[in-house]
Design a protein that fits this description.
Two copies of one chain form a homodimer. By secondary structure, chain A is of the alpha+beta class. In chain A, 31% of the residues lie in helices and 23% in strands. In chain A, the strands form three sheets. Chain A has a six-stranded mixed sheet. Chain A is globular and about 65 Å long.
């Protein structure tokens, strides 16, 4: 049920011919209220896609009544004509559901650097408007897939309210978001400030800590829409915790479907002087191609981890570092520790723990291994 | 002739059994003077190998009379015992050639996180001392190879003097050097300050701009030894230019032999506000796995380039960026320009040009594509 699990929302997903495969490629999620509070975070990439440029303007009002999303084209680096396509899609949605264009967030994903087929997109919007329903979440989730092998959906129940969500993303996952579109809905009745704070905190410790291939996208959008239809006004902390839990679930689904990956890698950095230090170390490891290929080869190569740690400015003494693979401390004090043979990397899940022995802070980064399939998919497929 | 092309040097390379293949793995280069001026640059990785820790101390005196190198083991993350192995090898060389241990630079390369076989190394030193000769350069160059498919050597003639060199490196190539060992010799008679300045300038625009896989090594060393045997004292600028030319040649040899690569990619960033901006943009592109896999797939995917440029803080307007592949400007003003079909990426050499339109500075970074063979080599081989 995903985004339509929350009361007050209708959604739909249709095939408009933007994808060569003929699969669903246009999605619409409408918030029927009574509240139209919304919050969003966008890519920090300076080269932003047209729908991001549009949606940032929409979200200045901290409200939204609908979001229209398409796959089959990112509408990125397409200039003024591309921006007009985005605007035209928002205007058509607005006209059909009886709101203002500036109430409509727009998201696009797919190939960048090519014009999106405006006529097909607008025709798809005409269709999806007619198919909107309160069970339309799964169709919408399917319509935003690109190289995803499965749709990503989540539902969480709070006390008297619900959080639902859908996501797409299978590569270009990097800090400050990814080629990632996420729509979260809730029927909780919360104000714009609470919604914004909750979303920023939730994304900070979930999507922002996913670093699949170190490449930052141009189209990332995480949108939270709040209908207030449940009448429940949860405590801000409780709502943040539930939203974070939902985001964590979606983030793990993205990780598990990352292009060509064979391992989901959790990098825990502990006993750092600061959380920023822990994050810097975790990201440096997550971005080491040598580390990522080693995990693909089921090789617990801690030397490549130390080489990555050594590129950071985090507080640590090289001769004090401990490293574990799946709980086996094969590096102690910067030297060989327990035998490498004690590590088994045959499971999909791999946990690397780095003990900096420099303080009490910690952070976790999630990444994937670098595989033949990743190279194949990204050398053969234009995104 | 490489390092022995310069008068005043003897070298040799022998097989000591450190490499499982039984190939040459211990090299020695001796400077017979009359001068013992030397300069060196080392990895900026904070997790340094034992030979780097030793050699940094040696080079505090800005002189060196010999360098002993081994492949088959990096002696990195091997603790005090590993450091003693390094010291023992320097002491043995010193004793046999009649100098002090603190005159002997040590370099190691190979697997990290495992003890180097001290007895085999010392036995190899005994052998190589006996084989030292003024035509021993090629054997030395061969003895420092790891995953290199060919040895790297260079000779340049100045006015009345010579610069010779050898290098090893085939991966982990990243700024601030790489898994790279380079020994340069000259029979020019120059002072320590001139040698140091010349080496820093030469490496700044050559080895430091090679970014093959974004991974910074723990063992990188570039050493210049000056015998003064020619009696010629070149102008500092002329010497720097010749040394830079020699380093450029070696750097291009390293690039051409990078693990699994099928394309040598030159990234030119032009019209930047500052050289640092140009470098930041070039490095961001060189580290984009999506860009590198696209080149492997012969896909001139300029969208992935703009996405990488957008992660930097360099001065530019997103809507002003131009991008060319091999001189074809397929992105103009942040939008599609000339047709992609006009670009042919079938040759090994690929040039990407990014015009930031923000100033008059420029910089060039060299990198490789990301291939199936890279993944294979680095998942199957522990380094």
């Amino acid at each position: 049920m995903t985004v339509t699990a929350s009361r007050g929302f209708r959604a739909g997903g249709v095939a408009a011919g933007l994808k060569a495969s003929g699969r669903r490629d246009v999605a619409l999620v409408v918030n029927d209220g009574p509240s139209d509070v919304a919050a969003a975070v966008f890519t920090t990439n300076r080269c932003k896609a047209n729908p991001v440029l549009w949606s940032e303007q929409v979200m200045a009002a901290r409200s939204a009544k609908a979001v229209v999303l398409n796959s089959g084209g990112a509408n990125c680096y397409t200039g003024p004509y591309g921006f007009q396509t985005t605007r035209a899609s928002a205007e058509l949605v607005a006209e059909r559901i009886g709101v203002e264009a500036t109430d409509v967030v727009v998201c696009s994903t797919g190939l960048i650097g090519e014009q999106l087929h405006r006529d097909k997109l607008l025709a798809g919007i005409e269709t999806v408007v007619r198919e909107l329903s309160d069970v339309g979440g799964p169709a919408a989730a399917e319509a935003i897939m690109t190289t995803d092998t499965r749709s990503k959906q989540v539902v969480r129940q709070g006390t008297g309210y619900t959080v639902g969500g859908m996501a797409k993303g299978a590569g270009m996952l990097a800090p400050a978001l990814a080629t990632m579109l996420v729509v979260l809905t809730t029927d909780a009745d919360i104000d714009a400030t609470t919604a914004d704070r909750a979303l920023r905190e939730a994304t900070r410790v979930t999507f922002d800590r996913l670093d699949s291939d170190g490449c930052m996208s141009t189209n990332d959008t995480v949108l939270l829409m709040c209908s207030g239809a449940s009448g429940a006004t949860p405590d801000a902390d409780e709502f943040t915790a539930l939203l974070t839990d939902a985001c964590h679930d979606l983030a793990q689904q993205l990780l598990g479907d990352a292009e060509g990956s064979e391992h989901d890698i959790t990098i825990e950095v502990v006993n750092a002087a600061t959380e920023d230090d822990a994050l810097a170390v975790g990201r440096a490891i997550a971005r080491s191609n040598l580390f990522k290929t080693a995990v693909y080869g089921k090789d617990p190569n801690w030397g490549r981890i130390l080489a990555a740690v050594g590129t950071t400015e985090a507080a640590f003494e090289p001769g004090a570092l401990d490293v574990a693979f799946n709980g086996v401390w094969i590096c102690r004090g910067g030297e060989p520790g327990e035998p490498r043979d004690a590590v088994d990397l045959s499971d999909r899940a791999v946990t690397v723990t780095v003990d900096l022995k420099a303080g009490r802070e910690s952070a976790t980064i999630w990444t994937n291994d670098l595989t033949h399939a990743y190279v194949h998919e990204n050398s053969a497929y234009s995104t």
